[in-house]
Specification:
This protein has 932 residues and is α+β, with helices and mostly antiparallel strands. It is 21% helix and 31% strand. It contains 18 helices and 55 strands. The chain has a nine-stranded antiparallel beta sheet with strand order 7-8-9-10-18-14-13-12-16, with helices on one face. Helix 8 packs across helix 9, helix 9 runs parallel beside helix 12 and helix 12 runs antiparallel to helix 13. The chain is globular and about 90 Å long. The protein starts with a helix and ends with a strand.
């Protein structure tokens, strides 16, 4: 009997513990440093994220609207992003004040103290110092609930400012009665055209004490500047309660959604939010006595569940990618898909604990494909931001299909995946034709080649499941394209330019050939073919040594400063996603102890129970999903495969509670219970024939004066190389295809086309174009260009090759914080009349047109005479990338041997510019100087 009582008591303890898991959540984790999280109230995957805004300047560390180092709150808005690297949201901002109302945010804002601030799952509170107002916030899925306690008597105001954080395109405010307001906020930021409808309900009558808007109609305010103050005389200690429901579709949708909370009991709403969190957090229960570790784990799990966000009304209506209103039938429609981040660990985690939502996410993808023309890349509020690279929605779909998750149309998923892979944008046209992307084709060429190859493998897995043999073979072949950018001599993934390896090469350098990283951080991204990658490095021992070298190198990068690259262990960067799988690669060479060592180090050092407790951006749950999975001793190195790689669990015990009521218990001794998922094995017939690697076309430079030696190389002694030469000036083929035996010498502008053949199988065809310079001029550049933007060195400004608006491809020279000055030597005195220098503007990247360009002439290179000044006429606020030729033609020829070109830098970035808070200096980008 005593044993039975003890057992019942134990069960009671476990049950109580499970009901209070929300208490372990610390929403302040990640609000300091570069975590970019917010502390406010939300429910799992909810539409509303009701949180304070302390940052309204668009700064990088203020992407979520809040940073722990700030001392001022501007208001409480209802939408926020969790850990992103771009700023958006902050919709429908309310701020309680007292006295004379103002719409100046410097006046209506208030200081606050962290001592008077609290946050937990589903709840946030703070005291506003300026007017001694206590604020408490909680939410349901679609409704935010505010409680304001005015500790002084007088006129209380609730400020509604639609011109908050991002750009207001258009706002409507309709006064329904003295307690009810309807709002449309249409805004532009990261999402270019976002719609938020809202319904505000007060628990007491309010009067309009101040307003701003274009409409002359009574009780109706609209325009691009809209704000209203709602006021009431209050006694000391009096409360005003506010409910704000959101909808992406309509006023009617917001009204319908307001029915989620039909009462004014704040504690009841808060308790319901906590109950929702307990239900979700109880999907994984850990045994741990250390309160900090409990907080880290459950906050990590919490952070994986605050997005994606439900984006439909209660009746299923949602705003589609076509900006039309649709009805979700048989699934729930979501938004906020940070897929470049979350395909790696967050979505694999969802396949374990949230299969229903996984199917909902994929059904959302498929509707976006149908309504928007392609699968999402980085979708936000029914807008495609096209942020980041790849088409990683196919990874999510392939992973779900491999794991047998149902509830979506497999054939439609494959159709959509194949469509994304067969488009001709973002370097895909070159990738399909030549088997890789070069710098000439597209920026971030190495990263795109690698990630496209992985995504193609995912599509092949989908084809295999659907018995589509031709598609399987085609995409498996494409999945090997990573081999075409792997340099077998250096052992790194390297950028190619004009048919050959780009030089100079530094694997530590962060530049525009990689996405938020360098070659070290991308040279191990072949999750689809780890055995092939190990073989490319020379086998197990050499691959292990390469991993060791990465982890043991100096923790310093070169090139561009990249704020995302943090949490360095050697060149491993845990603060950004491309590194996340790397510690697990030791498992594949028989060194699991090294995986355990690295994983344990990361768990212990890069996750803390403190505001700066994340080593990098949370990135919509990815950083936290890594912790959740790794702490349980499992990780999905290859999403799209059913296999989980293993390591020693961090906790004594973790229990996964599956949706089918099954349980899996993980301890240091192993797995017990429902083993089907974590011990699954992949099919053994998932292979394809090796591709023949493309040749490397190599020369000293892209341009030459008299003649140029060109070599064609391959890495396999049994390869046969073939080429032909094409005259670019006459469009004639100078030589038919013939076998390459020795180096080629060219004396005119030519294109060399080449391929490899081995055992009757051909590689893709590659080409390189070499330009004979139009003259023998030389140049002496007095300014110092940024090493990132060298355009091939000094001669790059006289080679007759013009850059495009995509400056990231490397064809422009960049100069920051200085004027550009250079002297062109014509080699002898000549009559010249035409002077031209070409510049580029991309103001979003701090590249501005020079304010003016001056041309001088000289015969002795000492005494210069001003020829003319050409002023800039390009608007510095222009968003589109723009090229301008600062051209001048003299009515009379000028005798000169030396021509000086001086371009004046724009200077400090102005107050309207995103770089202003950083005291930013403008770049000058120049490509070609022409003198005739």
């Amino acid at each position: 009997m005593k044993k039975a009582i003890s057992f019942i008591f134990l069960q009671l303890i476990i049950s109580v513990s499970a009901q209070n898991l929300y208490k372990n959540v610390n929403p302040f984790i990640g609000t300091d440093g570069h975590g970019h999280t917010y502390p406010g109230a939300t429910v799992p995957f909810g539409m509303v994220q009701l949180s304070p805004d302390t940052r309204i300047d668009g700064s990088w560390d203020g992407c979520s609207g809040y940073h722990y180092t700030d001392k001022t709150i501007y208001g409480f808005s209802h939408t926020h992003l969790n850990g992103t690297g771009c700023s958006d949201y902050g919709d429908i901002m309310l701020m309680p004040t007292m006295g004379e109302p103002s719409f100046d945010n410097k006046i209506y804002s208030s200081t606050f103290s962290h001592q008077n601030e609290k946050a937990s799952a589903g709840f946030y509170s703070v005291k506003l110092d300026k007017h001694n107002i206590d604020v408490r916030l909680t939410t349901s899925t679609r409704v935010g609930f505010h409680e304001y306690t005015f500790n002084n008597s007088g006129q209380a105001n609730v400020i509604l400012d639609l011109n908050h954080r991002d750009k207001l395109l258009y706002g409507d405010v309709k006064i329904i009665d003295n307690k009810t307001i309807e709002i449309l906020r249409r805004s532009e930021a990261w999402a270019k055209d976002q719609y938020v409808y809202a319904r505000i309900e007060f628990n007491v009558p309010m009067k309009i004490s101040k307003s701003k808007g274009d409409s002359k109609l009574e009780l109706f305010y609209r325009g691009s500047e809209v704000a209203i103050s709602f006021s009431k005389q209050v006694k000391k200690g009096e409360k005003i309660l506010v409910k704000v429901s959101l909808s992406p579709t309509s006023y009617e949708g917001a009204k319908l959604n307001s029915s989620e909370i039909k009462h004014w009991d704040f504690e009841k709403v808060k308790a319901a939010a906590e109950q929702l969190w307990d239900k979700e957090l109880s999907k994984i229960q850990i045994t741990e006595t250390n309160k900090d570790k409990l907080a880290i784990f459950y906050t990590a799990l919490y952070h994986t569940m605050v997005q994606p966000n439900i984006a439909q009304d209660i009746d299923g209506k949602y705003r589609g990618r076509d900006n039309k209103i649709h009805v979700a039938e048989g699934f729930d429609y979501y938004s906020v898909f940070s897929l470049w981040d979350t395909f790696r660990a967050a979505h694999p985690l969802y396949t374990l604990i949230d299969k229903k939502r996984t199917a909902d996410f994929i059904n959302t993808f498929l509707k976006q494909y149908e309504q928007g023309g392609r699968l999402p890349v980085w979708e936000l509020a029914s807008n495609e931001t096209d942020c980041m690279i790849g088409y990683h929605s196919v990874s999510v779909m392939a992973d779900a299909m491999a794991k047998g998750i149902t509830g979506f149309d497999y054939e439609k998923a494959f159709e959509a995946a194949k469509h994304s892979a067969m488009l001709d944008h973002l370097g895909l046209d070159a990738y399909k034709k030549q088997g890789f992307i070069s710098m000439d084709d597209e920026h971030e060429s190495v990263s795109k080649t690698l990630e496209y190859a992985y995504d193609d493998w995912c599509i092949a897995q989908m084809a295999l499941l659907l018995n589509k043999k031709e598609d399987f073979e085609y995409f498996m072949k494409r999945s090997q394209n990573w081999k075409n950018i792997f340099d077998w001599n250096t052992g790194f993934m390297r950028p190619k330019k004009n048919g050959g390896w780009d030089k100079p090469f530094d694997p530590r350098e962060i530049n525009n050939n990689f996405t938020e990283g360098n070659s070290w951080q991308y040279s191990f991204f072949v999750p689809q073919d780890i055995p092939g990658m190990i073989e490319a490095y020379g086998g197990n021992e050499k691959f292990e040594a390469k991993l060791d070298e990465m982890f043991n190198s100096e923790s310093k990068t070169t090139g561009r400063e990249q704020v995302d690259v943090t949490g360095l262990i050697g060149q491993y960067a845990h603060g950004n996603e491309p590194s996340h799988h790397m510690a697990y690669l030791y498992n594949y060479v028989g060194k699991p102890e090294k995986t355990t060592e690295k994983v344990r180090y990361i768990l212990n050092n890069f996750y803390k129970n403190s505001p700066d407790g994340l080593i990098g951006n949370e990135d919509c749950g990815q950083m936290s999903a890594w912790y959740v999975l790794s702490s349980m001793g499992i990780y999905a190195v290859t999403p799209g495969s059913v296999e989980w790689t293993k390591t020693t669990p961090y906790f004594d015990k973790a229990t996964i509670n599956f949706e089918n009521k099954e349980q899996l218990t993980i301890t240091k001794k192993g797995f017990k219970g429902y083993l089907k998922e974590v011990l699954a094995k992949s099919e053994s017939n998932n292979t394809a024939e090796n591709i023949i690697l493309v040749p490397v076309i190599q020369a000293e430079s892209k341009s030459f004066k008299d003649k140029l030696k060109v070599e064609i190389l391959s890495n396999n002694k049994s390869d046969e190389l073939y080429y032909h030469i094409f005259d670019k000036d006459t469009s004639l083929i100078l030589t038919p295809y013939k076998r390459y035996e020795k180096s080629i010498t060219i004396e005119k502008t030519s294109m060399i086309v080449a391929y490899v053949e081995n055992d009757g199988v051909k590689s893709n065809i590659v080409s390189a174009t070499f330009y004979k310079k139009p003259n023998n001029y030389s140049i002496n550049i007095k300014s110092k260009y940024n090493p990132q933007y060298h355009a091939g060195g000094n001669d790059g400004l006289l080679d007759g090759i013009n850059g495009t608006t995509n400056w990231r491809k490397g064809d422009w020279q960049g100069y920051q914080s200085q004027d550009f000055e250079a002297i062109v030597d014509l080699q002898s005195e000549k009559k010249v009349s035409n002077f031209s220098a070409t510049f580029l503007q991309d103001q979003r990247s701090w590249i501005m047109m020079p304010t003016k360009v001056e041309y001088y002439s000289s015969s002795d290179n000492i005494n210069f005479t001003l020829i003319t000044t050409v002023a800039n006429d390009v608007d510095p606020k222009k968003d589109e990338n723009t090229i301008k030729d600062f051209n001048f033609t003299s009515s009379k020829p000028i005798n000169a041997r030396y021509i000086k070109v001086k371009a004046y830098n724009f200077g400090k970035l102005p107050e309207w510019h995103l770089g202003f808070p950083y005291n930013g200096d403008a770049f000058i980008f120049i490509d070609e100087i022409t003198i005739n």
